[in-house]
Amino acid sequence: MEQTASVNADPAQRPDSAARCTWWRNWVAFWLLGLCNNFAYVVMLSAAHDILKKQESGNATASSSVTLPVDFQGGNSSNSSRYDCNPVSTAAVLLADILPTLVIKLFAPFVIHKLPYGFRVLFCVFMAATSFLLVSFSSAVWMSILGVIFASFGAGLGELSFLSLSVFFSRDVLGGWGSGTGGAGVAGALLYSGLTQTGLSPQVTLLIMLVVPLGMLISYFFLLVPPPSLPQWTNRETQYVAVGSEERRRLMDGPEEDEQDKSRPEDTTGPLTFTERLHIIKGLLRFVFPLGLVYFAEYFINQGLMELLYFPNFFLSHAEQYRWYQTLYQVGVFVSRSSLCCVKIRKLWTLSLLQVANAVLLLFAVRYLFLPSAWLVFVIILYEGLLGGAAYVNTFYFISKETEDRQREFAMAAASVGDSLGIALAGLAAFPVHRYFCSL
């Protein structure tokens, strides 16, 4: 037991290089798992747009309803609004991308424990690879949309599975996971844009990106060093015996926190009942509500307001301004999701209120056009990404820290619904707002 605790404690306290190597392998593996899990989700919409654009060249109606929300083109040929509006809000594609993820996060935590982690990872790899292949070789609109849905299902299942998986390792791996998911936004956008900019077709670019699901496979099965307690290929619902509970606590907390835990009563053994799961969800609301509110405000800005924040006299075109908004947002998310090793924020409601203040400020800015320059919007959008990423990574860190050992695996999976629910509600709210401003 003492050896296990030392392996997962702080690197500076570990007695040998093998233990330090194991710690770094696990941290890097979770970073790569976060990157690979979100990569297809990030890339798929812009890739689907490029291919749908070719497929729908003879169908103007379908093209405007499917492709415009993905890659904002600018121009207001369809109405006489004072805003440079697309006929359809970008929230349309946001909903198509987030709803499958939301569905799987709502229901999977109650049954996913019956599926061993090895099979979950194989399923996520299959979904990501299939999404790239479907969109690359699609000959009809429905095939490309199906590819987006596959990417969404794979990312949703992967997120709740890898968050649950983290309870078998040092809590430090959550920092690696958060940083990797943040890096997926930046890397996905830059890599796809860079490859297509060099002259490669979207189809060839997507085929090259099949290396990403392969990277997930290698990271999980060859780089990660799983503990013996991990249910890799078998369903072991009865593994929560007293020794296992104590071992898991040592893995998560290290020796310095273990002394504080000796006074706690021993966890009840056995798998969680349905009633217990509902009770855990009730206790998670103090984390899920702030996280959902942050993401509601965040994606209300991104999908309801961002395309309306256009400055005609700026040196960037409308489409270029919009792309830089998205890029700076992803940079902010990446930086803050990588900050767990430096700063931890327990007051999650503070992040929620600050993000709501951002949304209100930009809503009035769109309505009354009082912001003087796009430069100021760039700063606000970067700040928005910082708040969103910090809310995500700190939420799951403190859930992991404050949840009882036996409940932690389910809690990490169940809480992942918070961000997706907020995003879906933001997409719904963005429709009437977009319609209102474009009708002015």
TrEMBL record:
Coiled-coil annotated residue ranges, if any: none
Subcellular location: Late endosome; Lysosome membrane
A Gene Ontology biological process term: regulation of intracellular pH
Transmembrane segments: 28-48, 91-111, 117-137, 144-168, 174-192, 204-225, 280-301, 348-370, 376-398, 410-431
Region (Disordered): 250-270
GO cellular component: early endosome; late endosome; lysosomal membrane; membrane raft; neuron projection; trans-Golgi network
Pfam families: CLN3
Membrane topology listed for this record: Multi-pass membrane protein
Main localization category: other
Keywords: Endosome, Glycoprotein, Lipoprotein, Lysosome, Membrane, Methylation, Phosphoprotein, Prenylation, Transmembrane, Transmembrane helix, Transport
Keyword Cell cycle: no
Similarity-based family: Belongs to the battenin family.
Protein's UniProt name: Battenin
Protein's organism: Collichthys lucidus (Big head croaker)
